[in-house]
Amino acid sequence: MYRVLIIDDEEPLREAIHILGDWKGLGVGEVLEASDGKTGLDMLRREKFDLALVDMKMPELSGSQLLQIAEKEFPELLLIVISGYNDFEYTRQAIRSKVVDYLLKPVNRGDLNSALRKAVDLLEARKRERSEFIAQNITLNMSVPKLKEKMYLSILERSFKNQSNEAFLPLIGADTTGNQFTAGLLRLLNLEQVRKGRFHEDRDLMHFAVTNVINENSGGAFEAFSFVNPKNERELIAVFTMKKGYEEDAAFHSMHQLKKAAATLKELFGILCAGALGATYGDYLELADSYDTAKARLDDIDLLQLKGPVVSGGGTPVQEFRDSPSLTGRMPQIRSILESGNAAHAKSILNEFTQRWQSSARFSLGDADRTLRELLILLGDIAGELEEVPAALRAVKNKGLAALGLSGDYTSFSQFEGLLNGLLDAYAGEISRSLAGNRSGVLENIKAYIDNHYFENIKISMFTDKYFLSREYLMKLFKGKYGCGIHEYVQKVRMDKARDLLADPALKVQDISEMLGYKDKNYFSKAFRNYYDCSPSEFRTGNLEGEK
To answer: Which residues form the Response regulatory domain (predicted)?
Structure first.
């Protein structure tokens, strides 16, 4: 609702304007009066008005004088001039002061409301422009960081195209020569712990707080801009820009900013960080090389020596690649053990490796990442081959370790070791439960297959491949349920069928041998003798004599 001030020394005119104005229809919420120019000016200075109707001829402070003052002090105030004099001087001042309209006394309803409507239309237009401007600024302020992030990511991924992004180069200081660019990384080692304890499980809020700390006090000649690595929510990518500076100064300020951020994050939120800085370059496109160096330095930080926040950079050399002991070669054994339900044995194999890593010269964050990924993939492959994969294991692929109730945090080697053991425990438990529910059905399926296909060349590998069970474990299960091994059961079924077929004198021994899956009559006869202590012919003769 708008506020209007009538400034006129004639009370009847003020009253007439009150009566004639369509205030409600125009959206005017309040209409006040001033009996002279001086009083009107005081009121304008004390309160906020949108429109003033000013009489040109008043004592103490004339309308012309008031218009001149209002033009300087209240540039947003709209003015309508009222005068009983058709005087050029008044008209000229009204034109100078850009009044909305000029009314002559006596004021009539039509002219008054027409002038008021013109003023309100201008106020509405201003309001729309202001709203659009605010909206544009909000959108711009929200979109500029995302645009910068997108540009930096394309540079780091080496997919940035100069020509299509030329208009946006000033956003990242890439439009002028002499600027220095440095890339850095900051990994949040205890992200889940702090997210739950300090940020009410709100990842976005936590990332917002962290980026604010990294970017703090940047501006002017030195700027820090950071954002979450889209491939790893634990990592924050930071780009440091020094305008018209020297490479050494830029490197120094970047390192200082990253170390300060790591210390502040620990102090404010209890966040433990490992960070690294790449080399400084005068070409913004070389930020990709700077990032690669920072990533290599971050991966090379020794987990065995990690005690608190640490930032690697400057002249820190990257260690040569070391071939750390891999679990891959032992996974078939671990799989067999998990299938047998012996999780403790599987953990002993895992602990054998963790002890070897701990006793080695170094075990870096990169080694830890590779080992964790490797174990997740290998255990996932085992679980994926089971007929009934538990929902928790299926969710790990998309939801990560949280699907198993594991945080993924580790700030020391002992915590990393605990995470690996927790991961193995989670999979072992799910695999054991899955196999327990499915085991009986598997054995019944195998027995039914043998009963119906005894005449085929049956190999145990057929069942180990189909049901993803080790040979030893399957043999143990089958014998425990049926009292004999799979080969022995195949032999039993064949011999039972042979005895039934030999009762038919029309069938030759050679025919029976082939019907049972034996290609060699002599081999069948030998197998029959071993089983019944007589040859097929003797068994048939004895049966026929018994019938007589």
So the answer is: 3-120
Assess if residue 168 is contained within a domain.
no
- Per-residue confidence at 5, pLDDT binned at 50, 70, 90? very high
Q: Model-level pTM greater than 0.85?
A: no
- The token duo for 169 is 């180069």
The rounded mean pLDDT for the chain is 85
CB atoms within 10 A of CB 342: 14
Read off the amino acid at residue 251.
Answer: A
424 with 447, same domain: the answer is no
Identify which of 393, 381, 486 has the alpha carbon closest to the alpha carbon of residue 434: 393
d(CA 190, CA 442): 43
Q: How confident is the model at residue 433 (pLDDT cuts 50, 70, 90)?
A: low
Q: Give residue for tokens 């002249």.
A: 315
Please list, residue by residue across 494-511, b when 16 or more beta carbons sit within 10 angstroms of its beta carbon and e when fewer do: bbebbbebbeeeeeebee
Task: Check whether residue 332 and residue 426 sit in a common domain.
Answer: yes
In one-letter notation, the amino acid at residue 287 is L
Write out 368-411 in H/E/C secondary structure: HHHHHHHHHHHHHHHHHCCCCCCHHHHHHHHHHHHHHCCCCCCC
Residue 472's domain is classified under what CATH number? 1.10.10.60
- Give the C-alpha separation, 29 to 25, whole Å: 10
Residues 57 and 182 in one domain: no
Provide the domain count of the chain.
Answer: 4
Domain boundary residue, one of 312, 340, 356: 312
Q: Say if CB 54 and CB 66 are below 8 A apart.
A: yes
Question: For residue 303, what is the DSSP state?
Answer: G
Helices (H) and strands (E) in the chain — how many of each?
21, 10
Q: Cα-flanking dihedrals φ and ψ of residue 432, to 5°? A: -60, -45
pLDDT at 548: 41
Q: Which residue has the tokens 């008043």?
A: 58
In this structure, is residue 319 part of a structural domain? no
To the nearest 10 degrees (0 to 180), the angle between helices 471-482 and 331-339 is 10
Q: What are the backbone dihedrals phi and psi of residue 80, each rounded to the nearest 5 degrees, phi first?
A: -125, 125
Higher pLDDT, 29 or 331: 29
| CA separation for the pair 39, 522 (Å, rounded) | 131
Contact 485, 475 (CB under 8 A): yes
Q: Where are the alpha helices (DSSP H) in 309-363?
A: 331-339, 343-358
Within-domain flag for 332: yes
Distance CA 290, CA 327 (A): 32
Whole-angstrom distance, CA of residue 315 vs CA of residue 510: 85
Q: 79: exposed, middle or buried (C-beta count within 10 Å: 0-12, 13-18, 19+)?
A: buried
Q: Domain containing 368: what range?
A: 328-438
- If residue 322 lies in a helix (H) or strand (E), which one and from where to where? none
Contact 225, 238 (CB under 8 A): yes
Strand-pair partners of 280: 182
